[in-house]
Sequence to fold (197 residues):
Amino acid sequence: MRVSTHFALWVAGLAQAETQTTAGERACLARHAAGRQRLVEIGVWHGVTTRVLRAVMDPTATLWAVDPYPVGRLRVSFQQLIAHREVNSVRNGRVEWVRDTGVGAANRHRERGLPPADFVFIDGDHTYEGLQGDWTGWSPLVAPGAIIALHDTHASPSRPMNTTGSARYTREVILHDPAFECVDTHDSLTVMRRREA
Ligand SMILES: C[S@@+](CC[C@H](N)C(=O)[O-])C[C@H]1O[C@@H](n2cnc3c(N)ncnc32)[C@H](O)[C@@H]1O
Fold:
């Protein structure tokens, strides 16, 4: 379906915001994000998982919602319009929108001297180099005990993806990072926790 057609149907209440995550993956994200204070999501699309994170985070928390939202032929990002309304319908904590890549957002976070994040969900550029950029950008910016959850990192019954860039980078690099341990998996989701110093 064309993006503008989906947008028109969504405005009319005849189509839902889209996500590629499964209900089980969203439940897993919600468990690990519950009560967190400084959350980052890289790759927002229509904001379905952003809504989940916002609903369960601490009421005083900030969630940085990162997506470059490239514009289409009509010079507008319909995905961004949908995401803003979907995410703003959840009343909890604060959301800061960052229209940038995951790498650009990590650089801004560092330049602003912001405190380390305690939850990061990486679901942006799923190429090998894309995940490499997000992992090397964000893994030093999280506190001990913090969670980094990654989508599309291994095959699941519904998504045979062991040869994709993000699955390869996870298998070859992330799972061997001595600063982190794998604490959970669900479908194609991998959940890493930063070890205590
Ligand atoms: C799979 S969707 C995210 C879906 C969302 N997490 C959900 O399930 O509800 C991927 C999103 O990543 C964004 N994206 C692509 N490259 C990116 C990058 N380098 N950094 C951050 N986001 C990126 C795309 O614009 C797209 O909106």
